[in-house]
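Example 3.2
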Amino acid sequence: MNTTLNIENTSAILSKLEEANKTFQQIYPGDRPDRQPVHTVYGGANLFKADIAAKMTTGALNAFNTYAPNFAVLARALELPGHQLIPDSEEKIKYMASSLRKGGEVSENATLRILYNVYEKVKTKLETEALEDFRIDFEDGFGNRPDAEEDQTAINAAMETAKGMAEKSLSPFIGIRIKPFTEDLRNRGIRTLDIYLSTLLSETGGKLPDNFVVMLPKVTITEQPDTLAQLLDIIEAKFDMENGTIKMEMMVETTQSINASDGTNPLLRLVKAAKGRCIAMHFGTYDYTASCNITAKYQTMAHPVCDFAHHMTKVALSHTGVWLSDGATNVMPVGPHKGELTDAQMGENRSTVHAAWKLGYDHNRHSLWNGFYQGWDLHPAQLVARYAAVYTFFLESYDDAVHRLKHFVDKSAQATLSGDIFDDAATGQGLLNFFLKALNCGAITEQEILPTGLTIEEVRLRSFYKILEQRRNG
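Structure, written as tokens:
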């Protein structure tokens, strides 16, 4: 066989290609397999207590039990696909629920089965882990107050965090949002950061809660995350913590976060400026729409300018391992009437709550459709719509996702025989992450991943690369 290309005349060329490929892989390692919360609740720092998760659970369950007494009510309120199949008769609804619960004849209808399962899964989630993520907010949720008051609030919040750690009452993910590092507010943001972390770490012996993060809002230039990273270096050194322990998030809240002064998208540069600390980028719906000169009446998650920002964020940060989160619905599911209520007043409350749930559900489904698997919530009653949207989304997509991943697993089994696993692993992780996200939030169980051809042991590896590597070496 005649050949022209050989080691001698291609080694330098291939060496450059290898270096470039490895650099690319470092920047774009693929989606992270870690658990990502489906929501973040923001609450004013002045109101934060160690038992916040329990309070959110109580509030969410009260709303759920009051305004969604059975699966039919929830399905109709949210207009879930197939809700028209539910009969009007209460007796028939009870029979249908019993049949679905026991696996009777009605359960053969896949649409009705999803409606029933969504309701039951929402109920279970609210009872067991209503709150996944919480930000102790020193920014919009707290406002601008006298320095002495914010200083004391930072101390109190740190002590409550330490108490929650000791009592194991905190949510699985937690953090603080400080004021932005703009010229007007940077000193206040830094002071609050210092007081809160120094108080907390002194109280806990240098320990942080699991999945703790510092949120930096209204980021516009690389110097802001770079400054925060350097300040965290100093705090970690003081408390003998491993460098890089304290993670951070940033917020996309202005047009300058999407298009910098040089006309380019700055988001990847902002992430790099954080020196490996940035794990997520959150979208601020109302500040962003305001920065686009959208009037208050039309500042919603459904506005086209938000979709533009979402897509620009996706383009900049996809496959970097940085999580993306959408914003919040600002219409609260709270009835206008309190105390002893007449039937008419109860009806008005129900209509108000159901309308707010429907709006939140639609916004959350739109986020999921755009590939944003996390969003903000502001009130415990919003968690009903949050989990209903998440569970409906995953359960509706389950059969198709099983087929796609099974096909890919079968194909990858052949690729591993030749040792070619990186490209398959990168694509396979994206498919696997659908099931990991569904598993993390309670939409499915480990057993329901088995039809993909993966074993439970492989699923627990949470890495498609490790799965292929194990199969190749096994």
